[in-house]
Amino acid sequence: MIEIKNLKASVGEKEILKDLNLSIGKGEVHAIMGPNGSGKSTLSYALSGKEGYHLAGEIRFNKKNLLELNAEERAQEGVFLAFQYPIEIPGVFTNNFLRTSLNSIRKANGKKELNAVEFLKIVKEKANELKIDSEMLARPLNVGFSGGEKKRNEILQMSLLEPSFVIMDETDSGLDIDALKIVSNGVNTLRSPERSFLVITHYQRLLNYIKPDFVHVLSDGKIVKTGDWKLALELEDEGYGKYVN
Amino acid sequence: MSNGQEFIKNYNHGSEYPQGFVTNIETIEVPKGLSEETVRFISKQKDEPEWMLNWRLKAFQRLQSMQEPDWQKPKYPKINYQDLYYYSAPKSLQNRPKSLDDIDPEIRKTYEKLGIPLLEQKKLAGIAVDAVFDSVSVATTFKEKLNEIGVIFCSISEATREHPELVKKYLGSVIPMSDHFFATLNSAVFTDGSFVYIPPGVRCPMELSTYFRINASNTGQFERTLIIADKGSYVSYLEGCTAPMRDENQLHAANVELVALDDAEIKYSTVQNWYPGDKEGKGGIYNFVTKRGACRGRNSKISWTQVETGSAITWKYPSCILQGDNSQGEFYSVAITNNYQKADTGTKMIHLGKNTKSKIISKGISAGHADNTYRGMVSIHPKATGSKNYTQCDSLLVGNKCGAHTVPYIENKNSSSEIEHEATTSKISDDQLFYCRQRGLNQEEAVSLIVNGFCKEVLQQLPMEFAVEAQKLVGISLEGSVG
Fold first, then answer.
1. Which of B1, B427, B436, B451 to mutate to test the interface with A (most CBs of A within 10 A)?
2. Number of Cβ within a 10 Å radius of residue B119
3. Which residues contact B362 (CB under 8 A, 6 or more apart)?
4. A174-219 pLDDT, tens per residue?
5. List of domains in chain A
6. CA of B208, closest CA in chain A: separation in Å?
7. Nearest Cβ partner for A92 among B440, B443, B450
8. pTM score of the predicted model
């Protein structure tokens, strides 16, 4: 369902992604691992439409080329990025943000917008399912949230927006073991034959909880090795050394 | 939709400036320019008692020796006061319509378009409205009903005729006639505005509001409003303002005086949406306003809330003089400037009585090429023991061609008193915008959401019915400011 062909990304003169090719089928979970500076975050931004990159190539998704859509249009198509560092927005209650977000996406897809009561019912159900305390809905978005709370909030948003393609950008960074369990539990709950995942991570640890169908090694802007989840174990033991020039 | 939302929904019809239309009606011929003749003409039009005319003439005399101030940050081309009209009124109002239903249908239609029905059977429940059209009040709703509990709500012109003892006692008692150039100018040529008196112990059961409309061209609007809350009373008052889109600048120079006696409270809210000028900064209203409240009694309280989104230049400092012991002053402000708009606004809190408290929350938002200045004074006098002030000034920049400035003046002459001042300046970051857009919001929805979050503390001070619509106005004012 996602076909990345000859994707190139650069900032100014600096080329970060160099001819990256990857295809992710419906319902599959792919992990991308790689050393610092290999282009992991750039890949997540290129897929989700952050401005500031010069891009070439093609990203086919639902018969569209994502590179021709802006960030909100991609979100409305079902692309969701779980941020490595979720952003704080003072004064905007999480509740209000989530409802605005859900309604923007519903509206773009020709669905009825939800009023506050309808929304609250749904969000509480989702939070219960994921064992997330809905108390954080009444606080300003990510402001004063602990690292774990921020990531849980991302998972809650993911569950609420029901995307068909999820990109997780080093979601495991800075999480203690309990938070890691809640987050991976959330992802596992949301795995479905209709939803694909691209899990970007630095460490193998996360992949003990979210078992990927494929593991790719990203180095110097290219995928240099592809294998099954055992590749992650190998990397944990041997490091990235043999894939980095 | 609640009535409050109806009242203000005119701010919400799509983008640009839907209130920018002109009403075509016949008006009374008036002499041009500023002269004793003009002053006498205005007074005569309003059938004023002699003492009122004399008061105006005295102000006019004083004005001759006064200079227009120029210490403010936003500069403007010199105003030719001899080239202005000082009075404009629809001809149809000359015989003072007896009931709301007798008002010229054209004027009625204007207010309907602005979301304010004036017909008897369509009046807004729970909100009494005084509708000021250029230099005259065309109608005041619920006047009789309010009268039954002793609340006086009428135009200031009517008050000078019907309630001279109150007007004589309080007019100019908070803003002295020769306070400064614009205040003196207003004292000489003021035309209309509202008058409110709440008797002792009465909690006014409705929101009182005035809707100011400028229609005529080349005409200055000199609003005069006076609100008196007698002992132990309470009133919440809201004003709104709009004007047609014109290429020339127009002057709105108001004087607003509030008096709160023992244990009384006045809550005064403004949603200012005068025509801001076009995208290149052509046209728009000069909103040069003097607003001042006196907390004259013990335990009295005055709270100003302003949402300033319109005008080419906004220049005003709604202030509180805290005379009574334990009195309180509050100032909550959101000032949004976009394109080439300029604002120099803030407050003065003058602590005279013991244990007086003041609180200032100011949120300035600047976008496009706009320039936004917070200027404020907190002054604690020697006898104001145990007094406290808390000030928080936050500026938000949208884009990189706009400016924000904070100019606080602080004097504390009493060692038992405390002053706290906090200030921040921030920008809407690309990361915040991207985060919102990744969640499906478009650029404008994202800006509106972030700015509304930034202003939340102030917007929630507005009467409930208006807060929601004011949030939308905030979004509309910033349309096109990013990208």
1. B436
2. 16
3. B331, B332, B333, B335, B346, B347, B374, B376, B391, B392, B393, B394
4. 788 888 888 888 889 999 999 999 999 888 888 889 999 999 999 9
5. 2-243 (3.40.50.300)
6. 29
7. B450
8. 0.87
